[in-house]
Amino acid sequence: MKGCVRIKLSLDTEQQEGIVQLQPTGQMCRRCKKTFEEPSWYAEEMDKVAANIGLMIHFWFYEGEDPELNVGMRSGKPRSAHNSRLCQACTLGVCRRMRIQKNHGK
Known about the structure:
The protein is α+β, with helices and mostly antiparallel strands. It has helices spanning 43-62, 88-92, 96-103; strands spanning 5-12, 17-24, 27-28, 36-37.
């Protein structure tokens, strides 16, 4: 199963520190269409995302080696096709599926 996390990095050059904000994106209910629901994540998936972000920060800001990210994912059977109107990541413009569809003219 795929999930999306919006990442915001802020750098305070005076204090020489950075802040990393993570926003797991949710999905809206197909029936009520009122609010985006928080996604459910397994602890090991959150750990994997945090480790990948750490590797990328090291690469971007500390001239580290090109990271080998853990891109494995749990198997799952979505109940329906991706619906961009119900996807919070699509409304924020950060959904990978939305970019793939645009790049392939779908």
